[in-house]
Amino acid sequence: MSAASYPGQPLVEVRGLSTCFGSEGTGLTGLFKPEVPALRAVDDVDLVVMPGQIVGLVGESGSGKTTLGRTILGLEKPAGGDVRFAGRSLVGLGSGELRLLRRRMQMIPQDSAASLSPRMNVSQLLGEVYDIRRTPKDKRRSAAELLSMVELGSEHANKYPHELSGGQAKRVSIARALAMEPDFIVADEPTSGLDVSAVAAIINLLMRLRSQLRISYLFITHDLDAVAYMADVIAVMYLGKIVEAGPAEQLAEAPRHPYTQSLMNAVSRPGEERRPWLAIRGDIPSPRFPPSGCRFHTRCPFAQPLCREQEPKQEESGPGHRTACHFWREIASGSHLIQ
User: In what helix (H) or strand (E) does residue 55 lie, and over which residues does it extend?
Assistant: First the structure.
């Protein structure tokens, strides 16, 4: 379902968002080595999440996905741009105001086991969420109720993290996120490290919670099959930039950007042949020293001289579908530009 299918105003609206990590060689160290550019982990990103919508964010490690999610939640300070939640800008808010709004925005961390204190049992871990925010007793859900919401029995309340399976630890992390009754959750690789059956169970759980509680997700993942199944919209990120975004079904079936095509081509599907010219070549470049022009041109099978010289702008490449590629029309039509 595209954003246009969701009535009303965006729940989360990101415009021109950038996040940088400090340059090396500043201060005293700058006397001994030259200053280098700041690392732009997120660079001029636009993104919209409607109420009840799932937006899938895909891309290789190092593309800036997690940093984008953390910046939206206010866990990283933006270098530029704006993040609006329910129509209100989060940039420049005082810590008290931001803390109140962040009750409605939560995160499911990628490494659930590492995020759970080994010194606390599950009941204490769930209660900790309320303690940190000084939630009145009459506003708290019981551990049994939260565990039931993530399909775990109350017998898990007295267990410690080392006694939980990977899937159970993930469910406890989800329960912690649900404790504050959020409207929006950043789910950072929620299926990583799980076996196939556990992956399916977690995906179905998140889908059920979306339906029952009308939660919106930014679903960060490497799992293209999962995101194609879950998401209403897919956004593809490369070296800090959104290179393509559109309705999930349309983008999965007819990707316009060569990077998206390469990602889809890497997924093994019965009866489909991989196209060797779309194999992703080499490693993702350093975000501190991104290539000139189109950042994907160093690995793109369709790259032309223009790609090295000029950064492409996002263009409407279909209904609700935007692509940042100089030659997406030729690529979509099957014209051969391969070098």
Answer: strand 54-58
Spatial separation of the C-alpha atoms in residues 283 and 280, rounded to whole Å: 8
The rounded distance, in Å, linking the Cα atoms of 276 and 257 is 16
Q: What is the pTM of this model?
A: 0.90
Edge-first strand order for the sheet with 54-58 is 105-108, 184-188, 216-221, 54-58, 233-238, 241-247, 321-323, 315-318
Tokens linked to 155: 């017998």
30-63 b/e (C-beta count within 10 Å ≥ 16 → b): eeeeeeeebbbbbbebebbbbbbbbbbbbbbebb
Structure tokens at 191: 């299926």
* Short-list 182, 329, 154, 321, CA closest to 243: 321
How far is the C-alpha of 41 from the C-alpha of 65, rounded, in Å? Answer: 9
* pLDDT tens profile 195-248: 999 999 999 999 999 999 999 999 999 888 889 899 999 999 999 999 999 999
